[in-house]
Amino acid sequence: LKFLSDVSNVWTILIRMLLAIICAGSIGVERSRKRQAAGLRTYILVCLGAALVMMLSDFLVMNNPSSDAGRLGAQVISGIGFLGAGSILITSRNQIKGLTTAACLWACACMGIALGVGFYTLALIGFSLTIVVLFFLAPIEKKLTRYSRTHRFHIELEARTDLKELVTYLRNLDIKIASIERNAAYANSGLSVYTISMKNTKETEINDEFFENIKKLPYVNFVEEIF
User: Is 222 in a helix, a strand, or coil?
Assistant: First the structure.
């Protein structure tokens, strides 16, 4: 399999590019199923581009040994930050979304770099662990978040004066309020909208039943826990 390390060999190029498509495509499918902005094609293009850059770097070194082999790869790592930053957003409900997608894009570029230089073992191990994190750790993360002592929720009240009644209601349940943030995005909606952080206590468990009771309050228009 010596030809797999020869970047001037067309089969070496095709194998590395094919592996980049398979690895990145598998991750992209998972992101597409969750309707993320960066999906199947984005991941494939990122990984392919990184692999191409590193094969180009190998080729340049092969023809000019004094060339810096790591310079192009370093530019890929820093350049992918623009894509990652573009996939992160803060919703009108103060939810931060896209962090996992941004991290996946960065990891995908790193896999492309490893494949581009022919380090197949590292690339495939990295790919396998990325798949494990995305598919098998998500349910565990949700459970950990659900049973966390600190909870955040988005709530829409009929009027600003209703906030006092809500705070009184929560304190009567012995709920510890960590912070209350008014959401300016709903300033012209006619509603008074807040993001509230609170902590579980021994007396009251914050669960689905708790939020169902909040929804039944006459001055609450809508409530949703933020994960």
Answer: strand
| The pLDDT of residue 44 | 86
Both tokens assigned to 62 = 């092969």
Q: Looking at the predicted structure, is the pLDDT value of residue 146 above 70?
A: no
- φ, ψ (nearest 5 deg) of residue 207: -140, -170
Q: Return the structure tokens found at 195.
A: 């993001």
Residue 99 CA from chain centroid, whole number: 3
DSSP sequence for 102-162: HHHHHHHHHHHHHHHTT-HHHHHHHHHHHHHHHHHSHHHHHHHHHT-SEEEEEEEESSTTH
Q: Which residue has the tokens 């006459």?
A: 218
Q: Residue 100 belongs to what H/E stretch?
A: helix 99-116
- Measured CA to CA, the distance from residue 115 to residue 13 in angstroms comes to 10
Decide if pLDDT at 37 tops 80. Answer: no
> Where residue 54 falls among pLDDT bands split at 50, 70, 90?
confident
- pLDDT-derived band at 201, boundaries 50, 70, 90: low
